Each structure stands twice: as structure tokens, then as C-alpha cells.
Amino acid sequence: MKNPILAGVLNVIVPGAGMAYLGKWKDGLALFFIALILMLFGKSVIGYLGYPYLEEVEATSVFASVLIFTIRILQGVKIVCMVWILFIMAYHEANGMTLRKNPAIAVTLNFISAGLGFVYLQRWLLSIGAFLWITFFLGLISNAYMTVGEKDMLPFWVKFLVSLLLGAYLYWDTSVTACREAKKINKGYETKAEGIEPQALTPQSS
Q1: Contact predicate 42/131, CB 8 Å
Q2: Domain that includes residue 79, residue range
Q3: Strand partners, 202
Q4: Reduced to 3 states, what is the DSSP secondary structure of residue 201?
Q5: Angle at CA 26, nearest 5°, toward 22 and 29?
Q6: Whole-structure pTM value
Q7: Is 102 part of any domain?
Q8: Half-sphere exposure (CA, 13 Å, Cβ side) for 87?
Q9: Highest mean pLDDT of the ranges 8-12, 43-47, 109-113, 167-171
Q10: Which of 112, 145, 125, 140 is nearest to 45 (CA)?
Q11: Is residue 203 part of a domain?
């Protein structure tokens, strides 16, 4: 039997290494690339509201200061969440146990970093799809109205409102999908092990 702690630690040190150690090579490879992309480029919806010149107006704008502070906090939270996901994923896999998925956690993780909630659900294609979907449209909007050198605040607010509305729609769309997927996963567990408490761990079927 594989060591669960070693599997978890390996997965944290090199995303996917713990899964490869357990013989889950396809999952390990997918996890490596997706985790790498999300760690380097993944942003929260608030992160997409930042602009190249935002730090220049931070000293004179309370809004800019709050926005930058929130973005930095979420960047740290993203790292903590990713480490947690990587560890428990390999740890429970090594133990032959499957953890029920919490829809609220999946939705929250997707807000912290686009696609992160689907990593928690181990839905690789949905994870990369959500990342590309949100990054493309919000990135397009973020660069559509002004160049780095422009200081006019009217385009700033126009862009902010458009980004906020579009971002809300995109995150609502991915949140609904994440919630649905989590419930689908849990429903599958319930059909295999009737009578198990909602938050209990259930052995994987052989």
C-alpha cells in the first residue's frame, strides 16, 4: 500500500507527482499542467479589474488601494487553496477513499481563481475550459478601452462596470456548472453507498 502522507507531499512539491506515485499517470499529467497554468496565470474576478496603471493612482484613490489589497490577499489565498487541494487529493486517493465534494467550496474556489473549483472536483477539462473562457473575455474587456498611458478616469469607470457585469455573468455561469458537477459527484457516491452521512468518506469501488 502506498504511503498517503508521502503521496500528498509529493503532490504539493510537484503537482501531479503524488498521483503518478499512485499509478494515476493521466490524472498526474493533467494536474501538473492545469495547476501550473492556474498558479501562474489564474486570477479571481477581482483580479481582472486591475489595470496597468492602477498602482500609479493607489496613493490618491481609496478604491484603487482596496482593489490592489484584495487582489494581493486573493493571490495568497489561491496558493493556500491549491496546496490544500493537491495534498488531500493524493492523500485520500492513496487511502482508497473518496471525499464528497462540497458545492459551496467548488464555487468559492472558482471565484478565487478561475477553474480552481474544477480542480477540486477533478474535472480537468472543465477546469481548463473555465480558465480559458474567463481569461479570454475578461482579458479582452480589460484591454479594450484604454492604453497604459491614458489617465482619463471616465474610460476607467466604463471599463470597470463592463468588466464587472461581464465577470459576474461568467462567474455565475461557471459557478452553476461547478455546483451541478459537485452534486452529480455526490449523487454517484450515494448510489454506491446508501446510508453514508453526507460528509463521510466512502471507500472507492474496486
Answers
A1: yes
A2: 4-187
A3: 98
A4: strand
A5: 95
A6: 0.76
A7: yes
A8: 8
A9: 8-12
A10: 112
A11: no
Number of domains in the chain: 1
Quickly list H helices, 14-123: 17-21, 25-41, 62-94, 103-112, 116-120
Confirm whether 37 is domain-assigned. Answer: yes
**Three-state secondary-structure class, residue 202:** strand
CA gap 12, 70 in Å, rounded: 25
Which region, left, alpha or beta, applies to residue 203 given φ > 0 means left and ψ of -120 to 50 means alpha? beta
Measured between alpha carbons, how far is 176 from 114 in angstroms, rounded to an integer? 13
H helices then E strands: how many in the chain?
A: 8, 2
Strand (E) or helix (H) holding 203 = strand 201-203
Position 105: which residue type? I
pLDDT at 187 over 70: yes
Distance of CA 129 to the CA centre of its chain: 12
| Grid cell digits, residue 123 | 474535472
Cell numbers linked to 23:
499509478
> Do the domain assignments include residue 50?
yes
